[in-house]
Amino acid sequence: MACSLKCGSYFSGFTSSKASTSKKFPPLSFDFLGKPLAVPDQKIGSRNCSTKRENKFSVQAETACVSRSMRWWEKNLKPNMVKIHSAEELVCSLQNAGDRLVIIVFYSPGCGGCKALHPKICQLAEQNPNSIFFEVNYEELKNMCHCLNIHVLPFFRFYRGAEGRLCSFSCTIATIKKLKNALAKHGYNRCSLGPAKGLDESELMKLASAGELSLSSLQLPSLKEEAMQDLVMMRSMELSGLFDKADNNRTKVEKECALL
């Protein structure tokens, strides 16, 4: 963070080297970091000038932060590049993207490969205005990235509508052709039936169990349907077990009656 230092200073207690002479010094002024600095007149006493000399120096400093220079992951961002700040924001953004192609870019501020690739990603975002690029800072959302099994940076995931995840891979500036080929393959406009799928249901459950996501705030009818199906299956298995037990008891009773 770049800060400018603004200082105001004053000097007091300048005395003459000769005690017999009482003399006023003219006011002094000069510039200190672009700010005028004035030294006012002081009355010099004739008593004990040679034995008691009080030279006081006081500096009052005030720091004011100026606007910091932009960090590399904040430069040259395009309108279709969106910063993601939470797991819930990522899930909702994917669901609201409709049929548009979504590219999730996982990066880290300390990753040299991410820094080198960033200008190229900005260019690709400008060349593909109908696509959406979600920027995920690994350092800020480390727990979420672990739930999504992101262990290599930079990393990319492609999503579209009801199809959900299309592909995922890692690439660097040397293998950027992989990213360009994926954009050429999936970047065409198309319509899909049904709502946007977004993250896999297993990933949603991981995020929920890790405390990164609240499923109650999301509309996930498929999860509810699967839960109901599991419940019906469990009930049917329990009932079949009871019927099997009843059949075994009836067979046992029939055998005992035949022996009588």
Summarize the structure in words:
By secondary structure, the protein is an alpha/beta fold. It contains six helices and nine strands, in the order E-E-E-E-E-H-E-H-E-H-E-E-H-H-H. It has helices at residues 87-95, 112-127, 142-147, 177-186, 201-209, 221-259; strands at 3-12, 28-32, 35-39, 56-65, 81-84, 101-107, 132-137, 155-160, 164-170. The strands form three sheets. A five-stranded mixed sheet has the order 5-7-6-8-9, sandwiched between helices.
Short summary of the structure?
This protein has 260 residues and is α/β, with parallel strands linked by helices. Helices cover 34% and strands 23% of the residues.
Descriptive tags:
2 domains; 34% helix; 6 helices; 260 residues; two-stranded antiparallel sheet; Thioredoxin_domain; disulfide bond; alpha/beta; Glutaredoxin
